[in-house]
Each structure stands twice: as structure tokens, then as C-alpha cells.
Amino acid sequence: MSVTIGDTTSASKTSSTSSSSSTSVTANTSADLQNQFLTLLVAQLKNQDPTNPMDNNQLVSQLAQLNTVSGIEKLNTTLGSISGQINNNQSIQATSLIGHGVMVPGNEILVGKETSTPFGLELESAAENVTVTISDSTGKVVRTLELGAQTAGVHSWGWDGNVTDGTAAPDGSYTFTVAASTSGAQQTVQPLRYALVNGVVRNDSGAQLDLELQGKATLDDVRQIL
């Protein structure tokens, strides 16, 4: 920030005065900047030309800039404190989910021991027809579920683990896709997968849920608690 005080073009000023009148000031804090400004101001008042005093408007403008810098610095400090409190509250809130199942964005279904994890979806608006297609690890379709009309919001279901011919699906990981439409027009839909919250991890971005082998998720990712 360049701080300039008074008229530096006056012929009556000495070279040393002209050099101090236009000075590039680099300060780490607004307090440092204010101290340097006052030092320059006092020097200018001592050496100004009585017939050509410094412009009051210029002085007021630079004082206003200093106050703005100071205000921004205090605001950043306040926001940093608030952010820290929010992160602490998020961590406390997240710990209450440990041991609970949650529905988060994803399209995976796990099958094992004659049971399967729930699956779900989130609709921005109501849909007349919703179809879920389940595929195995090779991409082969093993089951198609017609869910009919669904309201806007979050919905979750359980798959019985049977494929199209009625036999049990082999243990493993499956994926699913969701198609939602109204009057033939496709709608935006978010598939949701099930995960068990194993713990809470805290980092610079806030609290994150540890979903064991299924990775991590934020509190904003949680669409439903089961």
C-alpha cells in the first residue's frame, strides 16, 4: 500500500522532504500501518510549505483507508473464531452418529450372508415413475425394480437379494442406477447408498464421518439416518 501525504511537487521542499512525502509502506498489521502513517504525517507537518499546506481531503481519504484495513483485520479474526466454534459443534454432533447407519450419495449395494444393504434415492420433485436397475460387478443387469410414483425427497428400500429368476444373488458388491420420469420427461435423481458410521475424523474443513471401507463423508452428505 502506498501512503502519500501532502503536495510533493512544491519547489520549496528539499529533496529529503520529497523522498519522505511519497513512501511505499509495507506493514504486517493495520497497527503497524497506522504507526508508520502517523510518523509520515508528523514529518510532513514539520516540513510542509506554509504557502501550500497539504490537502485535508487527501488526509481524510487515507485515514478512511486505514480504518477500513483495521476493520477488515478485526472481522477476519472474528470470523476465524466463529469458524472454530462451528467446527467444534460439528464434531460433537457427528459423534452422535457413531454406530448408526446413514444414507449418503452413492450407488453401491453389498450382498452377504443372505442379506443386503439398503439403497435409496433423493428426488428434487415428485416423479410418476421410478425404476431401479441393479447390476453385478461385470455390468450385467441382475434385477429391475419398478417403484412406481414417488414424492419429492429422500426414500430408501431394502433389496431381498434375489435376481430376476428368483434365485439368491451371489455375495459381493453390486451397483444400481435410478431412472425417474414424469409425463415422459426424465428428472434429476441422486442415488443413495448405505454406510455404517465407525468414527469421526476432524480436519481443517471440519468433522468427517469415518465409514470404514466405504471411505469418508461430511455431515452435509448425510441424507437419512437409519
Automatic annotation (TrEMBL):
The keyword Oxidoreductase does not apply. Transmembrane segments: none annotated. Residues 1-27 are annotated as: Disordered. InterPro entries: Enolase-like_N, FlgD, FlgD/Vpr_Ig-like, FLgD_Tudor. Residues 108-183 form the FlgD/Vpr Ig-like domain. Residues 8-27 have a biased composition (Low complexity). Residues 89-223 form the FlgD Tudor-like domain. It holds the Pfam family FlgD. Keywords: Bacterial flagellum biogenesis, Cell projection, Cilium, Flagellum. The keyword Transmembrane does not apply. Required for flagellar hook formation. May act as a scaffolding protein. Belongs to the FlgD family. This is Basal-body rod modification protein FlgD. The gene is flgD.
